[in-house]
Specification:
alpha+beta, 3 strands, single chain, flat
Length: 103
């Protein structure tokens, strides 16, 4: 019972955090552009929620290159071990599928 109460509270905090993030598309694009080799402008083309991150999919205007900007869900950061295990499993899966990602 207590676990369900905690999980409900955590979900609410994550939902509130995501609602704030969704209003920040311009800031997300500015962040992505600041890290682009030629500081190219971009637009957000999609958004997705994972267990530990909220992802913005951006596409740069001239090159049409696509990037993913991952923002950790702050309320979920208390579960560091679970997050790390999920990250490792994802990287290993990427390595199996592509052969390009070394873990």
């Amino acid at each position: 019972m207590i676990d369900e109460i905690i999980e409900d509270r955590l979900k609410k905090k994550c939902d509130d955090f995501i609602a704030c993030l969704q209003k920040k598309e311009r800031a997300i694009c500015a962040l992505a552009s600041a890290h682009h080799p030629v500081h190219e402008a971009c637009v957000v083309i999609d958004q997705r929620r994972g267990s530990f991150n909220y992802c913005f999919f951006v596409q740069f205007d001239r090159s049409r290159t696509k990037w993913i900007v991952r923002i950790p869900l702050r309320p979920r950061l208390a579960f560091v071990e679970e997050k790390l295990e999920a990250e490792i499993a994802t990287m290993r899966l990427g390595e199996i599928w592509t052969g390009d990602i070394l873990v």
